[in-house]
Design goal:
Elements (H helix, E strand, L loop, with lengths): L5 E3 L8 E9 L12 H7 L9 E7 L5 E6 L2 H12 L13 E6 L38 H13 L1 H5 L41 H17 L7 E5 L6 E7 L2 E6 L4 E5 L2 E8 L5 H11 L5
Helix pairs in contact: 5-6
Length: 292
């Protein structure tokens, strides 16, 4: 998802914006680093949870300063992201009338920089300006890092699943997961329903609490975006992402699940399919929001 198209030309012009990349902020698809659900993600940026969502355009002005421009033309941003993902050029140039807000900084890491302007930096603050947005630290563990870890498990589902037996335990000779996912491969085995063990942080109790809260979601739906369903890599398979206070879950509807906890840093806890999990996952998939 990258581009280098200017919304307005002019190196050295603080009113110019060179587009580097973009993201969607919608009920079904939003940067999970911003919150556990869509309203929370919007609130992080000082936005109301508009049902149609927003597009987030990340760029630099002519002085090199980082800016996040929020637009209400979601379709335009979605087309740009799809084109870039396919390796195609696309001139993302939102109409000024679609701009909802211009926020200093970037909430996500951006690997590219605009040519011909100074290196990316936060703009000089003016009175009344909000603090610049910044990506979460990779050296700490908290809600943002936990959600990012769950994102990586979802992206690398096949690699993580290949390491787990049907009983929910890690295979000793399983391959390593992809680098840079922010999680540890030294994970306690047998965190599925019906298994228990003592130990620091007692992750098994944590997993049981997650399952209980997910069952509660079926009785009283949580804020929109807490449970999301997307097409998996395999035809017909749905991939679930769910979040709650202190936890994240990644699951294949027809398979097993993984849980990450704030209280158990950098560990990915497997949940065996068992007897109750299939019905739970099917119920969550039925209520989940899905990309249009």
């Amino acid at each position: 998802m990258a581009g280098t198209d200017p919304i307005a030309d002019g190196a050295g012009d603080a009113d110019a914006l060179f587009v580097l990349t973009a993201a969607l902020l919608t009920p079904a698809r939003f940067p999970s680093v911003l919150g556990d659900d869509y309203p929370a993600a919007c609130a992080t940026l000082g936005l109301g949870p508009h049902p149609a969502g927003y597009g987030l355009v990340f760029g630099q002005d002519g002085l090199g300063a980082r800016w996040t421009v929020v637009v209400d033309d979601v379709s335009l941003v979605a087309v740009a992201i799809s084109s870039w993902d396919c390796g195609m050029a696309y001139d993302l140039s939102p109409d000024e009338r679609s701009v909802v807000a211009g926020l200093p900084g970037w909430p996500l890491p951006v690997a590219t920089a605009a040519p011909g302007v100074p290196a990316p930096h936060d703009p000089e603050p003016e009175e009344g300006d909000p603090a610049p947005l910044a990506p979460p630290s990779g050296e700490e563990w908290g809600p943002a890092q936990r959600r990012l870890g769950a994102d990586q498990v979802a992206l690398q589902w096949a690699a993580w699943r290949s390491r787990i037996g049907d009983d929910g335990t890690y295979a000793e000779d399983a391959p390593e997961a992809g680098d840079g996912d922010g999680t540890s491969s030294a994970v306690p085995a047998g965190a599925g329903e019906g298994n228990g063990s003592g130990g620091a942080g007692d992750p098994y109790d944590g997993v049981r609490r997650v399952l209980d809260e997910l069952h509660a979601y079926l009785e009283e739906p949580p804020p929109v975006g807490r449970v999301r369903s997307a097409a998996g890599a395999e035809e017909g398979a749905r991939l679930l992402r769910a979040d709650g206070p202190g936890w994240s879950l990644v699951a294949k509807v027809d398979d097993m699940a993984f849980v990450l906890l704030d209280a158990v840093p950098r560990e990915v806890l497997p949940v065996a399919r068992g007897e109750r999990l299939p019905a739970l996952l099917e119920g969550l998939d039925a209520m989940a929001v899905r990309p249009a």
